[in-house]
């Protein structure tokens, strides 16, 4: 058992029964990587978090900060490797978007119910106008921080620009959470609680927007036959 895993086990054991159950599994896995590999382990963990969003950055990043506070790795190493891991994971998703391509996206979109090709074309136009801001700020928004890399790949945003924006956005997000874990010490799980609330709020807003769009689309389709009869 690594020093970080030992400390983490002790901290979790002090929590009330049932507290941190899910975090115990993810945190224990991340602690094992960081404790065994140091900074590169944190990079691997956060790269996988980008590819598999159910692995929460709000657990991995504060835990890495906690590890830095315990002397398992330096704070500079924590920030460097987690940011590098974020960029590697985002670049992999960019590659998926580029591989899928615009033509396949249009072909898939045309088969979906309740959507129009014009909707996709407007989305593409919006991304061409605001893509730089979307990628930069999207890296700081829970849930979307991973997803934003895919449309960037589909739209073939220049790779150097994508890497620059992703690095800057990831550095800000990672720094906030790593430094919070560093400052909080064995109370690093507080970060997960607060960011978890923000993640749920973002998800609710996204679902509400999707529901509103669906209602508008259904009403539009219902009104179309009446307009034609008139």
What does this molecule look like?
With 230 residues, this protein is mainly α. α4 packs antiparallel against α10. Helices cover 83% and strands 0% of the residues. The termini are far apart. The protein has helices at 3-13, 21-37, 39-51, 57-69, 75-111, 117-138, 144-147, 149-154, 159-184, 189-229. The chain is built from ten helices and no strands.
State the gist of this model.
With 230 residues, this protein is mainly α. The protein is built from ten helices and no strands. Helix 1 (3-13) packs antiparallel against helix 2.
Please mark out the parts with pLDDT under 50 across 5 or more consecutive residues, or reply none: 11-23
From the alpha-carbon coordinates, what is the Rg to the nearest angstrom? Answer: 21 Å
Mean pLDDT: 75
**3D shape:** elongated
Count of discrete alpha- or pi-helical segments spanning 4 or more residues:
10
Number of strands: 0
Helix and strand sequence: HHHHHHHHHH
Helix content: over 70%
């Amino acid at each position: 058992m690594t020093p970080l895993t030992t400390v983490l086990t002790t901290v979790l054991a002090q929590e009330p029964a049932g507290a941190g159950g899910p975090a115990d599994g993810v945190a224990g896995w991340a602690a094992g990587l960081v404790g065994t590999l140091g900074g590169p382990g944190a990079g691997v963990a956060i790269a996988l978090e980008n590819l598999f969003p159910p692995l929460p950055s709000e657990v991995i990043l504060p835990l890495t900060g906690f590890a830095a506070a315990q002397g398992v790795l330096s704070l500079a190493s924590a920030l460097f490797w987690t940011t590098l891991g974020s960029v590697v994971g985002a670049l992999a998703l960019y590659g998926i978007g580029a591989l899928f391509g615009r033509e396949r996206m249009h072909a898939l979109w045309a088969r979906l119910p309740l959507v129009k090709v014009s909707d996709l074309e407007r989305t593409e136009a919006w991304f061409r106008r605001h893509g730089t801001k979307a990628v930069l700020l999207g890296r700081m928004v829970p849930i979307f921080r991973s997803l934003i890399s895919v449309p960037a790949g589909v739209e073939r945003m220049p790779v150097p620009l994508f890497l620059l924006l992703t690095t800057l956005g990831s550095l800000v997000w990672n720094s906030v959470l790593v430094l919070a874990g560093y400052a909080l010490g064995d109370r690093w799980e507080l970060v997960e609680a607060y960011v978890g609330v923000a993640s749920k709020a973002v998800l609710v807003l996204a679902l509400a927007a999707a529901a509103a769009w669906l209602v508008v689309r259904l009403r539009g389709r219902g009104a179309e036959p009446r307009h034609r009869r008139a």
